[in-house]
Amino acid sequence: MYPSRFGYESPRALDEAIELLSRGQGEAKILAGGQSLIPMLKLRFASPEMLVDINNLPGLSHLTVDPDGSLRVGALCRHAQLERAAALAGPFPTIAAAAPLVADPIVRNRGTLVGSICHADPQGDWAAVAIALGASVVAQGPSGRRRIPVADFVSGPFQNVLAYDEVAVEVVFPAAAGTAAGGYLKLERRVGDFATAGVAVGLERSGAVVTRAGMALTGVGGATIDASEAAQALVGGELTADRIARAADGAAAAAKPRGDHRGSAAYKRHIVHTFVTRILTRVADDVERAA
Which residue in 45, 85, 196, 218 could disulfide with 40, CB within 3.0 to 4.6 Å? Predict the structure, then answer.
């Protein structure tokens, strides 16, 4: 199929982009990587009156670590940039684990982390990672900038809380207070397919003791699921088998899957339980080897 007719604008300044969105009154869409938007246009699942292409805006391609250790990922930072950033493995292991698993190389070379989170696909990777790590979206509109926790930003399937005249300019991942640990695992039938189930875990440790734990699930509900309540079973102690089992049980209970051609609801819950156990056991083994 071919898309419906639409206007096209390519602003050269962020204020110009915001003005175009304001004039669009909710009928304009931002184009960054386009790896989700273009297929939706072709299938006419989306029919905006205007596309606002932000690829010529300066200052949005950054992938930088601030002096306090927090990571800022700009709206035009491609998945491939994160995949190639070897320095992230230490301070942000969950990001480093997820980056090579996003879609396929073609999509990773063009798609963006910020665009993925804004797209809010229930089977997307980055929203789960961002929730597990306590990240926030920085949005800019006519009234200035505001910061929105990703846990509050994704409001439903393919829905977010951005106003129609706001641009998500970056996502900020806070620095770990202590030693960062965690990981990301997902099951897909073949490379580039949508996730059957995925789990992101972000931990902070003081020695062997977990001081903060975040967890989120993808592919097992109508939206990305914040399973941080289940992760609280890990906080305040070491990663014992009992604590790992309680966290895995809680994550599986938090999942809200439906059976489909990828598997039954019970099977998807089993995958969540297995992935949580696998990630946490791997971290526990690393701690023991380092002792």
Answer: 45
